[in-house]
Amino acid sequence: MEKEVLQSYKKAGLIAAKARDYCCSLVKEGESLLEVTKKTEEKILSMGGDFAFPPQISLNNIAAHFYPAHDDNTVFKEGDVAKVDVGVHIGGFVGDTARTVVLSNNQKLKLLQEASKKALESAIRTVKPGVTLSEIGKNIQEEITKRGFAPIKNLTGHGLGQWQIHTSPSVPNFDTGSQTELTENQVIAIEPFASTGEGKIFESSNPELFSLSGQRPVRSPLTREVLRTIEEYNDLPFAKRWLIEKHGLGKTSFALRELDKLGVLEKHPPLPDGGEGIVSQAEHTVIIKDKPIFTTRLDDE
Ligand code: MN
Ligand code: MN
Hints:
This protein is of the alpha+beta class. It is built from 7 helices and 16 strands. The strands form 5 sheets. It has a 5-stranded antiparallel sheet. β3 and β4 (93-102) form a beta hairpin. α1 (3-26) runs antiparallel to α2 (33-46). It starts with a helix and ends in a 7-residue tail after the last strand. The structure holds manganese (II) ion (2 copies). Residues 85, 87, 96, 98, 191, 283 line the site of one manganese (II) ion. One manganese (II) ion binds at residues 85, 87, 96, 98, 191, 283.
């Protein structure tokens, strides 16, 4: 791996980690989810980072991909389990990291939080070139099931590449039996999810997150104007709210409808647990080496 590339990964990871912890510190009873999201975005930009994807705070039975609409009025409340997931890039090189905040002293919820955290720790103790995906998945599964929860099987960790937030390999949260081995200099995100429910998510509706999946000739000048903003995201996911702030609600909704009709708009709706289970998550980005580099882990972790 070139020195410059490594430096970019490290910088992206450090900013993502700091933004993650900053966001977690703001998640408190009575605070607005939308305001906390905005502050987290400002923090990332102030540290010189760009968004690999919009920072997400998914509550309770929503495992991932919740992002507040421009007029969202969610306020954190006692008992909430919040998954804070932050992605930062420097020149397209990504740091992806997540942590769970539990606004409760409920023992079962604390144990749920511990389950994904310990699963991640167990997984990262084993990673190095030659380790199989099966082995990583097995370690994650064990830590979660021994605490009485279910790993979410249809959410996985993933490889990262320049301008790519989901590339191979898929890093499973259970023992798939995969004998695929990790290789030197691979960059992967490991992200165990623990659920009090069935451990299977589905795609819900009303997405606020989107990405562009191809180039199509767009005739409408109005849509083209919005498209120019979207193209600045380099095919990485973006939030509808970002477009609304620049182009207004009417124009943004019109353009997104047009792009959807052209088949170039990928939607990323919230992902709730199928059995209404409460979900926790923990995630780090790792560069695979004999001595792996955990780019999103701060010294005090
Ligand atoms: Mn993530
Ligand atoms: Mn990820």
